[in-house]
Amino acid sequence: GRRPGDRRPMKADLALILETAREAGELARRMKAQGLKIWSKDGGSPVTDADIAVDELLKARLEAARPDYGWLSEETADDPTRLERKRLFVVDPIDGTAAFLKDRPWWSVSIAVVEDGKPVAGVVFAPELDETFTATVGAGAFLNGAVIAASAQDRVEDCSMLGDAPMFRHPAWREPWPPMHIETRNSIAYRMCLVADGRFDAALALSGKSEWDLAAADLICAEA
């Protein structure tokens, strides 16, 4: 294992996933410009040929660079042998496919390195916005190389909230939500990064999420 204080592998891993995320984001943009093929997954969520092409590019680049790491991705059939590996890549090739399809900029490429079940390096790259969020464990979180921090807001009243506005008005809530400034962004990873950098105070999603949605953004939030 890594000696305490030995940050070189983590720095090298961050540099690798950062370069790979940027390459993947540019591929997705090019394919969108050329016209996408779109179909539905089981469960009805949309998937495109860009999701698959980006997944293949990420897998090829990252596995070539780190053949001993495991792999978990939204667009690859799961291989349980990943559980035997000390480190693995956890990837969402295009998080926020709905935004990607509707020509909105709020989609991202999300890559994390997970060691012993915890993310230790993460990148969330939003190509259309030219925003790159990065973090390594214990070293802070960054947007385009500048240190970021979460907001100091500690009250729900008048907070800036990312979520689905109709959800907050739903009659199932036992008591009504206080007034908030509510906006929507499609990618859950990008939403979490907007909380990490203080542009929003909180985000709420009630639907289930997967490791690939959360791994990189979870580390970025924790470090911010």
Plain-language structure description:
- The protein has 6 helices and 12 strands.
- It has helices spanning 8-34, 49-65, 97-101, 165-168, 188-196, 211-223, and strands at residues 38-40, 46-48, 70-73, 87-95, 108-115, 118-126, 131-136, 141-143, 146-147, 160-162, 181-183, 202-203.
- Helix 1 (8-34) runs antiparallel to helix 2 and helix 5 (188-196) runs parallel beside helix 6.
- The radius of gyration is 18 Å and the shape is globular.
- The strands form 3 sheets. A 7-stranded mixed beta sheet has the order 3-4-5-6-7-8-9, with helices on both faces. Strands 11-10-12 form a 3-stranded parallel beta sheet, covered by helices on one side.
- Strand 8 (141-143) and strand 9 (146-147) form a beta hairpin.
- By secondary structure, the protein is an alpha/beta fold.
- The protein is 33% helix and 25% strand.
Q: Mean pLDDT, nearest integer?
A: 93
Strand percentage: 15-25%
Report the principal-axis shape: globular
Query: Helix tally?
Result: 6
Task: Report how far the terminal alpha carbons are from each other.
Answer: 26 Å
Low-confidence stretches: none
- How big is the Rg? 18 Å
